[in-house]
Automatic annotation (TrEMBL):
It comes from the Bacteria. InterPro entries: SNase_OB-fold_sf, Staphylococal_nuclease_OB-fold. It comes from Roseivivax marinus. This is Thermonuclease. Residues 42-118 form the TNase-like domain. Pfam families: SNase (PF00565).
Length: 151
């Protein structure tokens, strides 16, 4: 699921620094207008959140919760200050972000919906009991059992 064309909450987020938020993509990525680059995909550094296209249903639910937690944090805690830190292999602009004087990474980690991340391989978000892929017509997305259904 991509960002909304107009994220109404992000429209009220105040910002200063190198990137102005436009819409959240997920709990650690947003679309933003960045100095000298135009509208780009931006990845916050120092933390990782579950993926919207997760490997299990609990990861997907956590991804939505993390996205809303980030949205609320950016809206409620004062201006967002961003500093560009280069780009990643997906050509996203990497930014370190502070909101209301507190690093966004710290706030997200304290919610329990993110974990510290400094690059490299990431740990999964699914428990060993729910390692069933969510996508796949032969599996029920709500359980670990095969359903026998076909697409």
């Amino acid at each position: 699921m991509g960002p909304a064309i107009a994220d109404p909450v992000m429209g009220f987020a105040r910002s200063k620094g190198s990137c102005t938020p436009l819409a959240l993509v997920d709990g650690d990525t947003m679309k933003a207008l960045c100095d000298g680059r135009g509208v780009v995909s931006v990845r916050f550094v120092d933390f990782d959140t579950p993926e919207m296209a997760g490997r299990c249903s609990s990861e997907i639910w956590r991804a939505y919760a993390a996205t809303w937690a980030l949205r609320w944090s950016l809206f409620a805690h004062g201006p967002l200050t961003t500093t560009m830190r280069g780009s990643d292999r997906y050509d996203r602009v990497l930014v370190r972000a502070v909101s209301g004087g507190v690093p966004v990474a710290r706030r997200m980690i304290e919610t329990g919906l993110a974990r510290a991340y400094a690059g490299g391989p990431r740990a999964g978000w699914c428990s060993s009991q729910e390692r069933t892929p969510v996508r796949g017509a032969e599996r029920d997305i709500w359980t670990t059992k095969k359903t026998g259904r076909s697409a």
